[in-house]
Write a structure and sequence with these properties.
Layout lengths: L1 H21 L1 H4 E8 L6 H18 L2 E2 L2 E9 L4 H13 L5 E4 L3 H14 L3 E3 L14 E3 L4 H14 L4 E7 L2 H16 L3 E8 L7 H9 L4 E5 L5 H10 L8 E3 L21 E4 L8 H13 L7 H19 L6 H8 L3 E4 L2 E5 L6 E13 L2 E13 L2 H8 L1
Bound molecules: 3,4-dihydroxybenzoic acid.
3,4-dihydroxybenzoic acid binds next to loops.
């Protein structure tokens, strides 16, 4: 009697487990994708959403037997909103992953929640160096700003640029840009003759450009977040800095592919350092650009789109590796050390820092078939975030 009861109980328990396994909740993996679709950072949201949708269209919505459900939320790049949305996604929707984050403050706002809930936070857009240190559940597929700024400094000193004025948006990634560029540039014999910081929101560059012009530098090193480059370039030309022979240098955010073609021929010849150009010469990138443009009325993908696309790949690949296990710690462990070929070139996730390692290319704006492109002509291979190395040395 007692024995058959045990067996009956075991069957009931096994049966229940089987039912639970095939239930919709167990069989679905939800990705909460939080990104600015409105407000000043909306170009990031537009690019990233197009990319994640393309990834799903190309790779299907089933991974390791789980159905992938993408929940896209607009936070307008307002950190309080990001945090509230993330809380709802964790508690009500029970998401397996949080992803996106258009600017550094929104990525940071979610870090404590990711740690507490043990939910992987995949940063696909924001670029301040220290973001990945804010939670062991953060993994980044976008970039660290210093990755581009240090190679830019190396190239500049070797190519006759000796006096520079730095100009940056006054928030964390801008300060990362200023510090990492300046340290490398000065170390190699360059001189920073002025360091200008302007507000992130609605900047009027004109007075700052006047101040920069007065210092008669060889170049202005500029960091603005993606979406602001056209205004900067327009005011740079209006103020006559190009006519005065002053060059624009910097990480590639200022000549981002979303806006570049509308900037006009004045930008031809501008040299920047960055990890992605829509012109990157590889079969993987050519296929990506063609599919992206076809699915989005000819819109050209920029570096944010690639961060989103690679973020999707990372989540899909991690789920495959865990065999569909949705435990957050197991998923993050699966991501560590992963490598694959992205539209930007070969990339991997640093197993120590959970940050992206990618090539940084030196590119020059050129006209090709009537369109402006950042044409890559030199490569710094497999660049790790130099910002973290600098922190450790302190
Ligand atoms: C960040 C945002 C951007 O749009 C960009 O181009 C670089 C950095 C950020 O807030 O981290």
């Amino acid at each position: 009697m007692a024995r058959s009861f045990v067996i009956a109980a075991a069957i009931a328990a096994f049966g229940l487990a089987a039912v639970a396994d095939t239930s919709l909740a167990q069989g679905t993996v939800k990705i909460g994708f939080i990104i600015p679709m409105t407000g000043p950072q909306q170009s990031t949201g537009k690019q990233e959403v197009a990319a994640v949708k393309l990834y799903m269209a190309q790779h299907g919505d089933t991974v390791a037997g789980k159905k992938i459900e993408l929940i896209i939320k607009d936070d307008g790049a307002v950190p309080d909103k990001t945090k509230r949305i993330a809380q709802e996604l964790i508690v009500n929707d029970k998401v397996t992953f949080l992803a996106g984050f258009g600017i550094t403050p929104t990525a940071l706002a979610v870090a404590p929640l990711a740690t507490q809930a043990k939910v992987p936070e995949i940063v696909t857009a924001a670029g301040t160096s220290f973001i990945t240190e804010r939670s062991p559940y953060i993994v980044r597929t976008s970039f660290a700003v210093p990755q581009s700024c240090v190679p830019m400094a190396d190239w500049a000193v070797k190519n006759g640029i000796k006096r520079v004025v730095t100009m940056i948006s006054d928030y964390a990634p801008g300060i990362d840009a200023e510090k990492s560029f300046t340290a490398e540039f000065v170390k190699n014999g360059g001189k920073v003759v002025d360091a200008i910081r302007f507000p992130l929101a609605n900047p009027d560059f004109a007075p700052f450009l006047q101040r920069a012009a007065d210092r008669k530098p060889d170049a202005v090193f500029i960091f603005v977040p993606s979406g602001q480059g056209s205004i900067f370039v327009r005011q740079f030309v209006q103020k006559g800095l190009d006519k005065a022979g002053i060059k624009i240098i910097g990480p590639g955010d200022v000549v981002d592919d979303d806006l570049l073609n509308g900037m006009g021929d004045q930008v031809i010849g501008t040299v920047t350092a960055h990890f992605y150009s829509a012109d990157h010469d590889s079969a993987v990138n050519k296929a990506f650009v063609a599919a992206f443009e076809k699915a989005n009325h000819g819109m050209r993908p920029n570096f944010m789109a690639v961060g989103g696309y690679d973020g999707m790949h990372l989540m899909y690949a991690a789920l495959k590796k865990t065999g569909g296990n949705t435990d957050g710690t197991a998923l993050v462990n699966a991501m560590k050390g992963m490598s694959w070929e992205s539209p930007r070139g070969p990339i991997s996730i640093d197993p120590q820092t959970r940050d992206i390692i990618h090539n940084v290319y030196i590119r020059r704006v050129e006209k090709k078939n009537g369109q402006l492109y950042n044409v890559e002509f030199a490569t710094f291979p497999a660049v790790k975030d130099p910002g973290k190395a600098a922190e450790k040395k302190k």
